[in-house]
Amino acid sequence: MAEWDIKKLRILRTLRDRGTVTATAEALLMTPSAVSQQLSNLAKQLDVTLLEAHGRRVRLTDAAHLVLRHAEAVFAQLERADAELQGYLRGDTGQVRIGAFSTAVPALVVPAVRRLRESHPGLEVRVREAEAAEAYELLSDGAVDLALSLAAHAPTARDPQFARIPLLADPLDVALPAGHPLAAAPGLRLADLSGEAWIFGGSGPWSEITTAACEAAGFVPVQAHSAAGWTAILAMVEAGMGVALVPRMAAAERRAGVAMRTLEADQPRRHVVAAVRRGAQDGPAVGRTLAALRAIAAERA
Q1: pTM of the predicted model as reported, rounded to 2 decimal places
Q2: Do 163 and 287 contact (CB within 8 A), yes or no?
Q3: Rounded to whole angstroms, what are the CA distances from 30 to 36, 43, 68, 143?
Q4: How does pLDDT run across 114-169, given as a tens digit for each residue?
Q5: In this structure, are residues 262 and 172 in contact, taking their beta carbons and an 8 Å threshold?
Q6: Which residues of 190-205 are buried (b: 16+ CB within 10 A; e: fewer)?
């Protein structure tokens, strides 16, 4: 039977995810030569070719992808074993590290933490704000135990590395200056705002969400201003500089000079999901944290 070395398999998986030996070495705090040596040793142990030259880089062979398909099941089982062991050793105590995008922190994470403090005071939750894509990198690297992100920017539900849990369909409302002619118009549709100046991020998830929602309504939004934070976006709306789509989860940021309108016929939504490394959801600490997040999400819905 071939010798399956878990440490070397993790290096191979990181190479698959990061693409180059140099990026793999940086992620694992190793030298490139050490990465190459470990993978060479793994190939000898398994008696297969794992890497092949591709220009100035290397790429994984079909045999390497076969090995990783089985390795993912091993990693998931190890996560389950570790979670069960921690539950046995700690009972209701432990630590869960959460990576979450900005609006999810006050809307979902903070209320969940408050609830857990009452029900399981021995459970410690540490929160790290991270953009949607970064949250999954942190989860993959082991820097967080649970990631909150947007479904459109998450790995697919079939990804063997992660278990994905739907939490909430967050409606997007339109922010208009309080004195805008459409601020009180009945039956407002997104298409009614096709001629407006729009305010949204220059790149990243929110730029894509705004653009996709407007295109679904039949027009391409004209971006007048770019901002990443809701405080800046709503300040510009209040000043009459344009209109914006705002997630309902960002309600705490709303301003007196801004009219928030619900779109009746074509309201877009963004889907919020939680994710853990596959198998870790069976651990009591992560499981309780997920349950608290689901409860808060259900109350918001």
Answers
A1: 0.74
A2: no
A3: 10, 19, 21, 17
A4: 999 998 888 899 999 998 778 888 998 899 999 999 887 666 667 788 899 999 99
A5: no
A6: bebbeebbbbbbeeeb
